[in-house]
Amino acid sequence: MKLLILVALLGLASAAVFQHDLSKIESKRTKMIKAGTWPAYRKYKDFLRLAKAPHNLKSVAQNVNDYEDVEYIGNITIGTPEQTFLVILDTGSANLWVPDTSCGNGSSSTCPDYCSDADFCQFLCDTSCCSFKKNAIAKPAPKASACANKRKFDSTKSTTYVKNGQTWEIQYGTGSANGFLGQDTVRFGDAGTNQLVVPNTIFGQATSISTFFAQDPIDGILGLAFQSLAVDNIPPPLVNAISQGLLDQPLFTVYLQEKGNVDNVRGGVFTYGGLDSTHCSSDVSYVPLSSATYFQFRMDSIGIGSYSSNQGWDVISDTGTSFIGGPQDITDALANAVGATYDDQYGTYFIDCGANIGQTKITIGGKQYAIDAKQVLVDAGNGQCEFAFFPFNSGGFGPSWILGDPWIRQYCNVYGLGKKNIGFAKTL
Ligand SMILES: *[C@@H]1O[C@H](CO)[C@@H](O)[C@H](O)[C@H]1NC(C)=O
Ligand SMILES: *[C@@H]1O[C@H](CO)[C@@H](O)[C@H](O)[C@H]1NC(C)=O
């Protein structure tokens, strides 16, 4: 008996549960909508998408990873002593990268062609590029690097760093990042807190990141999905933690706090290795994943008001997306049912903030879930709200729907990396 207890205690000592506090920011997208600059930005996005189309058919479809609408971010540290980075905790991707000290030292320091378009230039180019184009006599001004205001990893200052050197590149819907790989200790959470410490983690050291990331408050991205989704099949940091037996259970729980229209406040918790009994009900309903790449599963139906569709689709739960995306015929019908109208210029559904829209009802694994109106009415300024759905064209590849933050704010999501399942629990 005594021996058993001792063994159990030893087991607890070697694996554990860790909590990681997040901040909620107002997304770049919401800021641009309020400022009226969003239509021009969308024009640039469409341009990028079409420009890529002939080379790679898949990229005609919308990419899951368009980070302009990110709302929840947190700190990690890399190396010994610790170097802190503010990252997107993203269940919709599977690689970790942060800028390297050499970021922006490369040769791509001239103004790209698209900077000649005044609309694009204001978002994507250094001001010196925009003014150069208006004054044809001046010689090309060097473009300020998108890395300029980012924290950068200095491997020479870390005693635990191991050189790898292999190159990598990641394409996102609206940008890209590339560099080389390194290996070091990665810690989830702020320095000085009870961190999940993962030795020998391979991560990307970016030497170049698109201008797209320049205005974002984040330094890099921490992908939390499956290794099969990872570029170059690099073990994601959390998968590495599980392989090393650092967690009680091979899963993590996400609680995103409902904060309304605020910027940069504490707003959610990721719990690695267990459930979050502080913020989430212990009554969790699990469904198997239909694909263990993203956290992808089946959704049976969706509806609001008098409208409902039970076609059934593959969906993903994505912390890195602030809205809910789905096939346009369905999102149009949902919008129509509540009296929201699609604005072509803004590419979004607008609705009066005072509208009484009721709950959005979703069925998963035969169980009905309800999303409150406050989660899907997002203030866009001047009494106007966005109806938090967007038409998402999967192009026939991958999931048809993206269940983003409105869904995860309403229900804690339990991401089962080990059992390849996903669970949902009421927030407390
Ligand atoms: C991240 O760390 C910085 C200090 O390094 C701190 O000011 C900031 O509040 C932290 N942000 C989050 C989201 O934890
Ligand atoms: C990159 O440029 C910065 C700033 O000029 C410099 O401090 C750093 O040492 C350079 N890094 C490399 C690897 O060349």
From TrEMBL:
Which Pfam families does the UniProt record give? Asp
Question: Which Cys pairs does UniProt list as disulfide-bonded?
Answer: C103-C147
- Tell me where in this chain the Peptidase A1 domain is found: 72-425
Q: Which domain of life is it from?
A: Eukaryota
Annotated catalytic residues: D90, D318
Gene Ontology biological process terms in this record: proteolysis
InterPro entries linked to this entry: Aspartic_peptidase_A1, Aspartic_peptidase_AS, Pepsin-like_dom, PEPTIDASE_A1, Peptidase_aspartic_dom_sf
Q: For this protein, what is any one GO molecular function term?
A: aspartic-type endopeptidase activity
> Which keywords belong to this entry?
Aspartyl protease, Disulfide bond, Glycoprotein, Hydrolase, Protease, Secreted, Signal
Please state where this protein is localized: Secreted
Please state what the protein is called: Peptidase A1 domain-containing protein
Provide the taxonomic classification: Eukaryota, Metazoa, Ecdysozoa, Nematoda, Chromadorea
